[in-house]
Design goal:
The chain has 425 residues and is of the alpha+beta class. It has twelve helices and 18 strands. The strands form five sheets. Strands 1-11-12-13-16-10-9-4 form an eight-stranded mixed sheet. β14 and β15 form a beta hairpin. α3 packs antiparallel against α4 and α7 crosses α12.
Length: 425
Amino acid sequence: MHDIKAIRENPQAYDRGWELRGLSAQTPAILELDAKLRAAQTAVQEAASRRNEASKLIGMAKAKKDEDRAAALMAEVEQLKTRMAEGMEVEATIGSELRDMLAKLPNIPADEVPPGEDETANAEQRNWGEPARLNNPRDHVDLGAPLGMDFEAAARMSGARFVVLKGQVARLERALGQFMLDLQTGENGYTEVNPPLLVRDEAVFGTGQLPKFAEDLFRTTDGRWLIPTAEVSLTNIVREQILSEEELPLRLTALTPCFRSEAGASGRDTRGMIRQHQFVKCELVSITTPERSNEEHERMTNCAEQVLQKLGLPYRTMLLCAGDMGFTARKTYDLEVWLPSQKTYREISSCSNCGDFQARRMDARYRPTGEKGTRFVHTLNGSGLAVGRTLVAVLENYQDEGGRIFVPEVLQPYMGGVTHLEPAP
């Protein structure tokens, strides 16, 4: 959500930001509604003030036994009450229209975000590891089938974009999730959370999935939403709260299933586990002060990179251009892991600084030390990592010609000392 006062003070900055995201100028319509809203509010306030004044005059007229004057004033009060009711109705209508307009507009890119319409304009910041150059590498679908990866069984019960994992490969996925969670809590200072997977409208509005992206979500018959990412649950922990500055930064992590309808993704990554309706992800969320949010963003990205480094998976870190960022982000780093079968890097994590965009939607604030007033917190979120895509990367990068998969050393304790996954005979 955007600060209407800031838009009034510097509309050009907002229009420049939205233009970078491919939108036309929005502030003329916003400011027109804002002017109408303030005019309606002023009219109601003036009518209320005159009503109060006239009410006092009625008493004075009656004290003087001036019944004609009292009757005239009483008639005026009734007219003012009608005018106030009509004005408040107009105020509510325009206010709702303005809030709806602002709620559908994306965050403004940070100054350092490069311009561009799509991923071709993203800027590589760094890379790590040497991409595996394998002879005729097999993809994770072919590698996974003899290890217990079953798409056909999943399709029979659930349809497309689901998978059944069994045996060795199921254990490897579990090992990856536990390793990620242990790393973020044990070494990086995140607090583990086991949050709800079902949330109300207010929660998904707070993190920006509603109202614009409802078709990307699954909804239950009682009106709740299945979370598309634990970002929703973790960030909403601070909704409608006032934190002390001493509590910040607040760093939270969760390993949860995530659910996405993938509306509009037809034809993209239809083979395998890259893009599914249900997947597991280790989420990272930070709540911090405006002064520390840029520093926290770099730290969070580093925490996600550590997972790939410890697994020995080559990757690169990309700064997303304005046109490729998510709706709530003001700055995003994507981590892209090397997939030998595709001979390219593919996204495995996004780490975003949302500024106060989500906090305004959730009314999440903090009280600076020594001050009476409050300010909006800054919220950040990132994947640390998407477990299914990490499983894909491990299978492909650690394959040998016989279809065996080497288990990265950091995962072997979670696998009971197993060093290789062996195809079923």
